[in-house]
Structures are given as structure tokens and as C-alpha cells.
Amino acid sequence: MELSYPLLIGLIGIALLFDFLNGLHDAANSIATVVATRVLKPHHAVLWAAFFNFIAFAVFGLHVAQTVGKGIVDAQVIDAAVIFGALIGAIFWNVLTWVLGIPSSSSHALIGGLLGAGLAKAGFDGIVWSGVLKTVAGIFVAPLTGMVFALLLVLFVAWTSLKLTPIAVDRRFRKLQLISAAAYSLGHGGNDAQKTMGIIAVLLYSQGLLGGEFHVPFWVVISCQAAIALGTLSGGWKIVHTMGSKITKLTPQQGFCAETGGAITLFIANVGGIPISSTHTITGAIVGVGAARRMSAVRWNVASSIVTAWFITLPAAGIVGALCYGATRLIAG
């Protein structure tokens, strides 16, 4: 289905709106720990995170964008109705969980919406199952990896701080947390913004505007990085509160370990082209540093409700995506 330019620009606008909401929803992932430990004031923290969100394109390749653009739904199946359904499904779930203060995955909401719309159009044959399995595996692997790295860092930091006074440790890690928060924001921008890049690029490809080979134009890269950075700058304060204080109480030392463990996980995923959830990653890392202190330090009822939302995200966004695809086709005749 060939689109008029106004419709094409409208769809790209909706994609960038999702990217903005992604940054708004996921600001907590980048700043919750640095705000909870009072290393930075909230508005300074979002400025710090937004800057590193934006420059991520200069650090990482576009491997995640390639996976989302070609590795979830067959590019031959993609059309305007599929993209619209995917975006509305993702935006619906993002707004709902943001209002409720639930730290769910914007990434999986987008992929769930894309799957739902793709299945509604072409059935199981239109899905690239290897890419889907890689994404689903990330639901389990990302938080566990973040948790393991955070636990190892807690042990390393405790060993290297044995001869320091508590005040000296606090002073050291207040400074180091600025670096860890920057690293996490860099990884977040390098993974999450690329998912929207992949969506816009495959839309352009379906309209024959990229020539014969799929690629991500530079203007798409810049637009998506700017949109997610502006969203982060707007902050998602309900989710910041949940992530920063409801799961476990954090010190600067623990905040550094959680952010660094999460950043390492995101860097690995970015290089490997794996669209993982920054929400899942930092949640696992925060749980890890809390459990390292003692198991009762983690509010497991809060953590379990977050995990439940993780499993609901893909099918919930997928159902909305499928319904929006069907409605769009009916209206279009």
C-alpha cells in the first residue's frame, strides 16, 4: 500500500511520539538510583541522562535497529497498517503503565505491538521466529545478567573499600555514580532509540524510499536520539519513585554497582544487536545489590509485581496492535 506523503509523515511522527514516551517512561532506568542516593537533584539528573541518551549514536553501531527492522516481522509483510498497529499497541501500554507507575518495558511493548499486527496480517508465516526468540530470551537473560554483574561489583567494591571510613566510601561513590549513571544512559540510548529507528526505516523500505537495500538513514538516527532524549528530559517521576526507593533502599555505593552492572549488560546487548529491556536490566541490578546486603532488604512484593508486568507486556501490546491493524484495514476498505 503506497502512502501519500502526509500519511507517511504522520506515521513517522507517531513513531517519534512513541520514542519520546519511551524516554519519558524509561527516564527512571537512567536516573532512579542517582536521584534515590541524592547524588543529583532530579532535574539535574534528567539533564545528565538526556545528554548521554542523545550521543549514544556516536558510540554504538545500528545493530539493534537492524534486528528490529528485519528480525521480528518479515520486511515483505510490513506496511503502513502494520506499523500503525504496532505503534498504537506500544503507546497504549506505555501510557497505561506510566499512569500506574509500573516500570514495564517500552521495548517489549513495541515488539509486542509489531508481533500482534504482523500476526493479524500474515499469520505465523510472517514472523521471523529467530528474532522473536532472541527478544523473549532477553526477558530472562537481561535482568539476570544485570543482577550477576551488580553482585560481582558489590563484592569487588566491598573488598577495595575495606580500609576506608564510611564517609570516605560515600564521598568516593558519589563521584563515581556520575560516571555510572552516564554509562547507563549511554547504553539505554544505544538500545532503546534504535528500536524506533528500525520501525521508521522498515516503513521507509516498504515504501521503496531506501532503494534496494535496507538501511537506517542518518536523519532517522538523529531524530530518534533527539526524541528519546527529550522524553528523558521530561522525566517519569512516578516510576522514578518506584525504581529508586520502593524495591530497596540504596546507598551511593550500591547505586554505582547497580548502574554499572546494568550498563555492562546494555553495552553487550548493543554490540550483539539484541533488543533487550533497559527496565528489566536495571531492575535486576537493583534487586541484586539489595539482596547482596540481605534478602529481606528487597521488597519482594514490589519486585514480583514488576516481573508480572514484564510477562503481560508482549501479549497486551500485541492484542492492541492486532486490533488496531484490523480496524485500520476496515477503515481503508
From TrEMBL:
<feature type="transmembrane region" description="Helical">
    <location>
        <begin position="46"/>
        <end position="65"/>
    </location>
</feature>
<protein>
    <submittedName>
        <fullName>Anion permease</fullName>
    </submittedName>
</protein>
<dbReference type="GO" id="GO:0005315">
    <property type="term" value="F:phosphate transmembrane transporter activity"/>
</dbReference>
<keyword id="KW-0813">Transport</keyword>
<feature type="transmembrane region" description="Helical">
    <location>
        <begin position="136"/>
        <end position="159"/>
    </location>
</feature>
<feature type="transmembrane region" description="Helical">
    <location>
        <begin position="106"/>
        <end position="124"/>
    </location>
</feature>
<dbReference type="GO" id="GO:0016020">
    <property type="term" value="C:membrane"/>
</dbReference>
<feature type="transmembrane region" description="Helical">
    <location>
        <begin position="218"/>
        <end position="240"/>
    </location>
</feature>
<feature type="transmembrane region" description="Helical">
    <location>
        <begin position="302"/>
        <end position="328"/>
    </location>
</feature>
<keyword id="KW-0812">Transmembrane</keyword>
<keyword id="KW-1133">Transmembrane helix</keyword>
<keyword id="KW-0472">Membrane</keyword>
<dbReference type="Pfam" id="PF01384">
    <property type="entry name" value="PHO4"/>
</dbReference>
<dbReference type="InterPro" id="IPR001204">
    <property type="entry name" value="Phos_transporter"/>
</dbReference>
<feature type="transmembrane region" description="Helical">
    <location>
        <begin position="77"/>
        <end position="100"/>
    </location>
</feature>
<dbReference type="GO" id="GO:0035435">
    <property type="term" value="P:phosphate ion transmembrane transport"/>
</dbReference>
